[in-house]
Each structure stands twice: as C-alpha cells, then as structure tokens.
Amino acid sequence: MDTNNVINKVQKLLNVFYVQQKAASSVTKCWKWNINEFTNNQVNHKYAVLILNRTISQKQEFIKKIWNNATLRIAVDGGMVHWEKFVNNLPVNDQRTMKLPDLITGDFDSITEDVLEKYKKKGCKAIHTPDQDHTDFTKALKELNNYCIDNEIQMDHVIAIAQSSGRIDQIIGNIQTLYLVREERLLHPETKMYIMSDDSLTWLLSPGDHIIDIPEESRRVKGCWCALIPVGEVCESVTTNGLKWNLDNQQLKFGRLVSTSNTFDGSEQVKIKCSHTLVWAMEIPSLTNVHSDKENC
C-alpha cells in the first residue's frame, strides 16, 4: 500500500469536509413568526399551553379557546389554583365546556392539597418535580418533552401563560427558561416557545433573519410597544425594518443601547437580522381589556 497516496486521499476528504462545514455554517437561517394565529385563535398546529402560578389576566373568550383547542394542557403548581379560579368565574355553561388539565406539575409548594387531590380524583395526572435547581416552569417543560417523546408527538408551539410584572427575579427566571429551552434542548428544536403575559408575547430570536407578522391591532392602536433586548451577551449587529425606530447594523448592549419602548411603523411585517440572540417582546392589545384609553391610528 502506498502510504503517501492514502495520506493524500485522507487530506482531500478532510478538505472537502472542511469546505462543506464552512459553507453550512455561513448559511443564514430564517425564521417566520405568524403571531396572527394566536390573536385570532386559529392555531392549526399541535401546541401545548402551560398555566404558571400567576393570575390569568387575558380575556375569557381567548383563554377558553386557546386552552380547549390545545393538544396538551398543563397546570404548573399554583397555576392550578389560578386555573380553577378562572373557570369558576365563567358562566355555568362555559364551565362545563372547559377541558381539564392533562398534567399538573411542580414541587407543589403553591398548590393547596385539597385542590391537588380534587383534580387527581378527576383524572388529571400529577407529577411531583421536587428538584430545586430549576424553576417549576423549567421542570414542567421537561415533563412536556417526556410526554411528547412517550406519545411520539412533536409540538409546533408551546405557550406559557405567565406574568411579567412584580418580582424581577421571577421575570428573569422565566427568560432564563427561554434560554434553557434552546441550550439544554428542553423541547424539540423546531418547537417555538412563547411567554404570554397580560397583553404581551415574548420569545427568543436566535442569530439569523426573522420575519414577524404583526397583527393589525398592534399596527393600528397608537403606542403599541415592542422591544429588542440583549440578555446574557452583546448583540454585535442588529438591522430592522418595520419599526418606528429602526436599527441599522447597530450594537445592542446593556450600558449602551437597548431597544425598549419601540413601536411599529404600520408595516404588516417586522424584519430583524441579528448576529446574536435577542429577547423580542411585543404588545397585542386584544388579549386583555385594558386598552380603552388608547387611540386608533
């Protein structure tokens, strides 16, 4: 065997592999975000809904539909208590149509024992997750992923009904969970994770190009806000189109520039190109009843 020929062939193969890997890494990924599916309650995909331990502030009709139409419904610890309060405030006929949670998860330090036992007797599966290294939100997503694996289901979307006001440590904890979804693969890589709080929706934008369909109400109601926030790292380059105050290959960094209290320019889509991960949050007025004082454009 000619050793030199073998070495040359191996080197050529390695060179080809290197070129292929370099080409693959240079391809910019593009994500499409159709938020109108949620605002119009027309989600035609498999999705899961989680109720975290916060008051449910969205409109009753919206929560009824997005909950009942979900592929999987999860109440997270004290979220079970808030879900029960929400249901008890509905008209009697609507109470009967509300589906029960499929799973109740958490370390169970917030749910009352009588509520837990009540719904276990009704057939809800309770999963105790005592690990204190992660939040109940994070652990609930792990159980969601286990459910999907066991039942060979891939969720297209996961929506957590939470709260972005009050304790800042819990707000940051929820954002941390968004990062853990990606970094620790808590969910399938193609599953999109959202946090819904009052009248807003928040999610992560990974490095690459993003096209976000903006609901008409967010474009029409004057003063609807949106934000691009670098969390955990500097975003060296951000370019946007469709915002009132667009960014042009600019750096976002705490201590320098952070794009908060931005708004929309009326375009049907916002386009964002980012070099590093950003938190994107936006207002969707119709989710709650607190916008009567805002003007239509």
Brief digest:
The protein contains nine helices and 15 strands. The protein is an alpha/beta fold.
**Morphology call:** globular
What string gives the helices and strands in order? HEHEHEHHEHEHEHEEEHEEEEEE
Unreliable residue stretches = 16-25
Radius of gyration: 22 Å
Strand residues, percent: 25-35%
Count the E strands.
15
What oligomeric state do these chains adopt? single chain
- What is the helix content? 25-40%
How would you portray this structure in words?
This protein has 297 residues and is an alpha/beta fold. It contains nine helices and 15 strands. The longest helix has 24 residues, at 3-26.
Question: Which terms summarize this structure?
Answer:
alpha/beta, 27% strand, 9 helices, five-stranded mixed β-sheet, 297 residues, 15 strands, single chain, ten-stranded mixed β-sheet, 33% helix
Q: What's the structural blueprint in terms of helices and strands?
A:
Blueprint lengths: L2 H24 L3 E5 L1 H4 L7 E5 L8 H9 L3 E5 L2 H10 L3 H6 L5 E4 L6 H9 L3 E4 L7 H15 L6 E6 L5 H16 L8 E6 L2 E6 L2 E6 L2 H5 L4 E5 L5 E7 L8 E3 L6 E5 L5 E6 L3 E6 L14
Parallel strand pairs: 1-9, 2-3, 2-6, 3-4, 4-5, 6-7
Antiparallel strand pairs: 7-8, 8-15, 9-14, 10-13, 10-15, 11-12, 11-14
